[in-house]
């Protein structure tokens, strides 16, 4: 599995021959790329409807959309998406097959109003667990699994469900504070998830969320966790094995 962070919360995930783009937003100071520099992925995954997560979704409307039914309906009308996974989107707790990947939608504790002239709901905010095998109750040491927490606060579901049952090998968590978890709570999330690798996201884009990722790494060490923290340079791939 190959992971590429494009700044903020935008990730390009390659599983086998399948490309997934999560929360496309290229107006951030970490990336040098424009949406036109990105080949159209097979799937676009949207965690929620805030502008800093869907701003450039319309640039990839030829892809299949993975989002809540409410957000799918909005994106069909606003951006011209015609294909949504399952024809109608998906919802929390569901797992869908997306080419060579399996995508499970998880809960995120956040808001999801879409700020238009007449504000509309995008349904529940979400995170995604992306794996190269279908999740089962039988632990699979051969699978490779990546968890994108989306915009969220610390929640016990990470400790009680996502960590022990979906078994991510790596996770990306927001550390910006103010709108989401900050470094301390994000570090607790990483400890609860018991992942081998952790990546900070959703920081340094706007003044209220400026953070030093080394503080996050220090907080992770402070939990006693041996998780390896990677503050990635944008647009450079990371191979997860």
From TrEMBL:
Keywords: Hydrolase. GO terms for molecular function: hydrolase activity. Residues 7-202 form the Metallo-beta-lactamase domain. It comes from the Archaea. Residues 215-241 are annotated as: Disordered. Belongs to the UPF0173 family. This is UPF0173 metal-dependent hydrolase C485_11828. It comes from Natrinema altunense (strain JCM 12890 / CGMCC 1.3731 / AJ2). The lineage of its organism: Archaea, Methanobacteriati, Methanobacteriota, Stenosarchaea group, Halobacteria.
């Amino acid at each position: 599995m190959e992971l590429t962070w494009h700044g903020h919360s935008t990730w390009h995930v390659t599983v086998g021959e399948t490309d997934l783009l999560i929360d496309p937003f290229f107006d951030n100071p970490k990336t040098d790329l424009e949406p036109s520099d990105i080949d159209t992925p097979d799937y676009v995954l949207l965690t929620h409807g805030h502008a800093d997560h869907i701003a450039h979704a319309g640039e990839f409307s030829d892809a299949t959309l993975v989002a809540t039914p409410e957000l799918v309906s909005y994106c069909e009308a606003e951006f011209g998406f015609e294909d949504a996974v399952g024809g109608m989107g998906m919802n929390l707790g569901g797992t869908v097959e997306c080419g060579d990947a399996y995508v499970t939608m998880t809960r995120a504790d956040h808001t999801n109003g879409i700020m238009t002239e007449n504000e509309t709901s995008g349904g529940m905010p979400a995170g995604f667990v992306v794996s190269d095998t279908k999740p089962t109750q039988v632990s699979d040491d051969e699978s490779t699994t990546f968890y994108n927490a989306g915009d969220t606060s610390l929640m016990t579901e990470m400790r009680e469900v996502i960590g022990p049952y979906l078994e991510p090998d790596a996770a990306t968590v927001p550390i910006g504070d103010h709108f989401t978890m900050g470094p301390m709570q994000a570090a607790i999330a990483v400890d609860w998830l018991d992942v081998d690798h952790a990546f900070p996201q959703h920081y340094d884009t706007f003044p209220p969320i400026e953070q030093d990722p080394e503080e996050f790494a220090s907080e992770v060490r402070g939990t006693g966790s041996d998780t390896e923290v990677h503050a990635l340079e944008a647009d450079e791939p990371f191979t997860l094995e």
